[in-house]
ABC transporter substrate-binding protein
Amino acid sequence: MKRLAFAIFAATLLPTVCFAQNLSGKLVLYTSQPHTDAQQTVDAFKAKFPQVDVSFVRDGTPRIMAKLRAEFEAGQPQADVLLIADSVTMEGLKIEGRLMAHESADTSVYPAGTHDAQKHWFATKLITTGIVYNTKARFKPSSWADLAKPEVRGQVVMPSPLNSGAALIHAATLTSNLEDGWKYYEALKNNGATAGGGNGDILKSVAGGEKIVGVIVDFMPIREKAKGAPVEFVFPKEGVSAVSEPVAILKSTKNPEAAKAFINFLLSAEGQELALKQGYIAAHPGIAVPDGYPPRDQIKVLPFDAAKALADETKNKTTFADIFGQ
């Protein structure tokens, strides 16, 4: 009876398996992933679906979006799938009606709020923003409030929300969750904090001793510490902000079934293990964290509302510019 039941079960799966194996055609990915990560992602997908001809265009999220906008204007969008840095950009595309919902995507193992509730975009990672400090300095921060202390007057550097999507999400997250709201940023400014440059510039400044403390994404200082750099990354006790490197299907895709398969792969345990292999915190709650990170249950990610952040984007940028004179 068990063999019969298994045979019936296998037979019900056969059409799906055959259909998946027979996926073919072209699939174009636009992504802001580092080139090596993008190539690994494409190669892993092609190993499962060798008949799909996958190509990718890689650049920073602002440039990817500028290219995509120009294609929208011309009525000839080339991408099938978009894998970029932040959910706020995805939320904007969703509101514009540019994204196709993937309603059958299995998100059952993910906590509520990880992905778009209507399944237009899906988180693939958790890249958090916390504090980096130079280990040669006596000051060892443990809290966001520490960056406003006299001991680090003029010694704090951070990316500007006017130039960085992750920094804008960070500002929206902190001001929504910290009791002081935007007064926290006023305190940083009054303490001589400077804002500008990217995460690489922040790391270089702190590792080189130009500044003592910086605000930065997690993986950069953690990787550099492993190479011997005099830096330490801190997950502040109040919690951290996070960008989720979401993936979505454009409504204009010419190969929707292959695009859905790509999403399914990234959300699967295998796809999430790839994120771990690349050195990131996978969005999947059951996947281990990379070396150098504290246990997952010790990383507190602060709540973030992408739709609200999109609605408040202009206001948040203006408020930050007014505080820092940019």
